[in-house]
Amino acid sequence: MRDVRAAILGFGNVGRELAKALSRRAEYIAEHTGYMVTLNLIATSKGYIEFGRDWRERVLEHAMRYEAGDRGFLKPLEDLWKIMDALMPDIVFIAIPPSYGDGEPNISIYRGFIERGINIITADKTGLALRYSELISGAKKRGVYIGYRATVMAGTPAIDVIRGVRGREIRVIRGILNATSNYILSLVENGLGYKEAIERAIKEKLAEPDPGIDVEGMDAAAKLAILANEAGLGTSLNEIGRKPLTEISEDDVRKARREGGAVKYIANADIHRRELRVSPEILGPGDPLAHVTKNYNGLAIDLEEDRITLIGPAGPAWRTANVMITDLIEYISIRMYWKH
Fold first, then answer.
1. Residue 227, Ramachandran bin (φ over 0: left; ψ between -120 and 50: alpha; else beta)
2. Angle between helices 218-230 and 126-142 (to 10 degrees)
3. Whose CA is closest to 152, among 182, 184, 175, 120?
4. Cα(288)–Cα(298) distance, integer angstroms
5. Using CA atoms, how far apart are residues 323 and 321, in angstroms rounded to an integer?
6. Residue 322: exposure state from Cβ atoms within 10 A (0-12, 13-18, ≥19)
7. Residue 256: its H or E element
8. Could you give the percent of the chain with pLDDT greater than 90?
9. Could you say which of 87, 138, 166, 313 has the lowest number of CB atoms within 10 Å?
10. CATH no., domain 158-314
11. What are the residue boundaries of the structural domains of the chain, listed by start?
12. Long-range contacts of 272-277, Cβ-Cβ distance < 8 Å, separation of 24 or more
């Protein structure tokens, strides 16, 4: 049985869940693809660790130790590219935090892997939200696979749906793309103030300690940029207007729900007009997105005379990790088989 040599870059919640999923589902992947995945490396900003043939048992141990706060097993990482050049994995899983300001170091990391011909599966939105055309075209020229299903609505196949309607006249893409903000609004509907609702989302680990990326629209805008590019628009995160979730009052949130509708944090791309924005909107009871609640996402695609509506779960990390496994199976099926 042939091997696929893999590495994980980033070992936060998603990286740890991915390592566990790879270990536990190795036989499943082998059975369905004919290839055995070997995880040779985990690298973080704190250091790295290498694995051999016994990686499956060891990675579960290290995932638990890392979660407990023990970083002592990591070797100092002085130069990411030196170790990658020595290892040259077939594929690297990227699970690092986003960097939406100047995009660094994330964009340089993507460029480095593409230049080396190393295939990529990512949960990080930074590169594709800011440099979609550059990275996708660069990857095609080098024959590099980029899997990024996990970047948008990870638990629900949003990117697959957009790909499935390519060639048709897509007019508008509207969505609830940030489940954290949707959960916060659900709490406000039930009587909490924004402050208390945000604090609960942080406590329940649905929001980061600094929730601005969610409630100021950056996360939803990054996902909208990826979807719009997937639909052929050619845009960037920096072109998307954003208004904060809290712009609509708590009273208006509750009033909308009493009247059968809802306030939702909507990411909207008018493809024909090239108008993209993320803002809170009051939706009437007839809008299917008005009924997307709690930790769920929704997507409505208007094309020709039709509308496609997709509603499903977002994270948490274990779902995101499983979607990265889906990309891995696609990579093996499409790329590896053609080599033999």
1. alpha
2. 30
3. 175
4. 8
5. 5
6. middle
7. helix 250-258
8. 82
9. 166
10. 3.30.360.10
11. 2-154+318-339, 158-314
12. 272/171, 274/233, 274/235, 276/221, 276/224, 276/225, 276/228, 276/235, 276/239, 276/240, 276/241, 277/240, 277/241, 277/242, 277/243
* Contact (CB, 8 A) for 283 and 291: no
Give kind and range of the element (H or E) at residue 128: helix 126-142
* pLDDT tens string 131-166: 999 999 999 999 999 999 999 999 899 999 999 998
How far, in Å, CA of 264 to CA of 292, rounded? 9
Contact 120, 7 (CB under 8 A): no
Fold of 2-154+318-339: Rossmann fold (3.40.50)
**What is the number of other CB atoms lying within 10 angstroms of the CB of residue 69?**
7
Q: What is the DSSP letter of 311?
A: E
Q: What is the CA radius of gyration of the chain?
A: 20
Amino acid, res. 338: W
Q: Is the pTM of this model over 0.90?
A: yes
43 near 80, Cβ under 8 Å?
yes
Beta-carbon contacts of residue 117 (< 8 Å; ≥ 6 apart): 142, 143, 144
Amino acid identity of 127? G
What are the DSSP calls for 132-144, one per residue? HHHHHHHHHHHT-
